Amino acid sequence: MPELPEVQTTVNFLRNKIIGLKIVDFWADKEKPIRQAGGAAKFKKMVVGAKIKSVWRRAKYIVVDLEGPYTIFIHQKISGHLLYGKWQQLTVDNKHLTDRYGQRSDEEWISKEGGPLKNDRKNQYIRLIFFLSNGYQLALSDLRRFGRVILVKDDKLTDVKELKGLGPEPFDLSLLQFKKLFRKSFGGARDKRGKLKPVLMDQTFVAGIGNIYADEILWEAGLHPLSRVEHLLTYEIEKIYRAMIKILKKAVELRGSSMDDYRLPSGEMGRAQLYHRAYQKTGDKCAKHDGGVIERIKIGQRSAHFCPKHQVLK
Ligand SMILES: [Zn+2]
């Protein structure tokens, strides 16, 4: 699932392309990718004609603010990713444009331009398209169809369930604030006692970190994923903070991790996965050359990858 670096990369890309453009038309497939009352028909009525004012990220979510009273909220979920390009719909006349992947339905869209938008299978599950005033289109490719796209009144944005109770953004936190977050988290409604990796991934603690970057941050910081948060020493919290900023910043520079479905809006892959040291590296020698071999353990329904040599459970 896209985490902070992937979503930030998408937002950075789109900011350079779509701000100031008008939405001139909208298309959604028959499987109803618009998950709210009124569906695609109502959504289309409200967005067509509107100008795109801004695009921003909060946690793992994308917010597209339109001129006028509405905002588009997008949670890409497991396989969803926004793409920017030009597509044409398959018709009886242009069926020859396809297809090395077998049967396609008459609803499918094919990129007009070559390259990854056309050739990478991950980019070919087009569920909805915003047609823009510059002739380009903003599309959602979403193999597994879990993505959530809804239209919200500007003043109701804070009521969107995903945006409620979110913790602070990692890049907005100073070291001091980060330390306070840990101390504050013991006791009371925001009690975050427990195992370190699940706490880092808890969106009400700090927003935007998921399975991939939690493993990478803890590898970098040299802390075991099962460490008890309430037993962390000050210098260990400092290590987590520095690792968090370093790992997330580098991942944004590398334009995210394309391990599974995530792609840039251009259809290209990010490169952060080439620098992963723990996540899905089970059996590899630790890159710190300490003689450790990366292990995988279960934490509830999820897993964690770590080096038993330099990430010791105390
Ligand atoms: Zn190691």
From TrEMBL:
What Pfam families does UniProt report for this protein, alphabetically? Fapy_DNA_glyco (PF01149), H2TH (PF06831)
Q: Which CDD domains does the UniProt record give?
A: EcFpg-like_N
Cofactor names from the entry are: Zn(2+)
Q: Which PROSITE patterns match?
A: FPG_CAT, ZF_FPG_2
Q: Which SUPFAM superfamilies match?
A: Glucocorticoid receptor-like (DNA-binding domain) (SSF57716), N-terminal domain of MutM-like DNA repair proteins (SSF81624), S13-like H2TH domain (SSF46946)
**Coiled-coil annotated spans:** none
SMART domains tied to this protein = Fapy_DNA_glyco, H2TH
List keywords of the entry alphabetically: DNA damage, DNA repair, DNA-binding, Glycosidase, Hydrolase, Lyase, Metal-binding, Multifunctional enzyme, Zinc, Zinc-finger
For this UniProt entry, the molecular function terms from Gene Ontology, in alphabetical order, are: 8-oxo-7,8-dihydroguanine DNA N-glycosylase activity; class I DNA-(apurinic or apyrimidinic site) endonuclease activity; damaged DNA binding; zinc ion binding
Where does the record place the FPG-type domain?
277-312
Recorded catalytic reaction(s): these are: Hydrolysis of DNA containing ring-opened 7-methylguanine residues, releasing 2,6-diamino-4-hydroxy-5-(N-methyl)formamidopyrimidine; 2'-deoxyribonucleotide-(2'-deoxyribose 5'-phosphate)-2'-deoxyribonucleotide-DNA = a 3'-end 2'-deoxyribonucleotide-(2,3-dehydro-2,3-deoxyribose 5'-phosphate)-DNA + a 5'-end 5'-phospho-2'-deoxyribonucleoside-DNA + H(+)
Q: Mind telling me which Gene3D superfamilies this protein's record contains?
A: 1.10.8.50, MutM-like, N-terminal
GO BP:
base-excision repair
- Subunit structure as annotated in this protein's UniProt entry: Monomer.
By sequence similarity, the record places it as follows: Belongs to the FPG family.
Q: Which NCBIfam families match?
A: PRK01103.1
Q: Which protein are we looking at?
A: Uncharacterized protein
